[in-house]
Specification:
5 helices, Aspartate Aminotransferase, domain 1, alpha+beta, 159 residues, 5-stranded antiparallel sheet, globular
Length: 159
């Protein structure tokens, strides 16, 4: 008589099979944050809530040195691209154009456990330069030169 083989999978395998993904825990958390952001945005009935409070809360919750860097980048973006509206995007501080499309964002080191923070730009950023240009920049620290470059990039990206 043939033995019946158990179809039970190990616990980790069951979780992966159920979710059908190979995303990291951090990536899954970011996707859940994005879903919450979209739900919150659909509940907003006025333009009065421009996301400033949400962005500042996310920045305040960041560990150092991400918090200091994000605070400074927020100030640079607000000063050099006032047309961009702050909003959260996958749980990160981001800045959107009038159509609500993210133009740039800050990703701290703690978000995905990376060795450097990232200032990224979406395809909505007006940074086109020939047939190739950078769309993200690694940040280890902010000095005067880096802040000046960020200010110029953000102003240009906003168009």
């Amino acid at each position: 008589m043939a033995e019946k083989k158990s179809k039970a999978k190990p616990a980790a395998g069951r979780a992966a099979a159920r979710s059908g993904t190979s995303f990291t825990i951090e990536e899954q958390a970011a996707m859940r944050e994005r879903a919450q952001e979209l739900k919150a945005a659909s509940r907003r009935s006025t333009k009065a809530d421009d996301g400033e409070g949400e962005v500042l809360a996310k920045i305040a919750a960041m560990p150092e040195p991400d918090r200091t860097m994000a605070t400074r980048i927020h100030a640079i973006v607000r000063a050099n691209a006032p047309a961009l509206a702050p909003k959260t995007w996958y749980g990160m501080p981001a800045y959107a154009n009038a159509a609500g499309q993210v133009v740039c964002f800050f990703q701290g080191t703690a978000k995905f456990k990376t060795r450097y923070a990232t200032l990224g730009f979406s395809d909505k950023a007006k940074l086109d330069e020939g047939s190739m240009w950078p769309s993200a920049f690694a940040l280890k620290a902010l000095d005067v030169a880096a802040e000046a470059r960020i200010a110029a990039l953000v102003a240009r990206a906003a168009g």
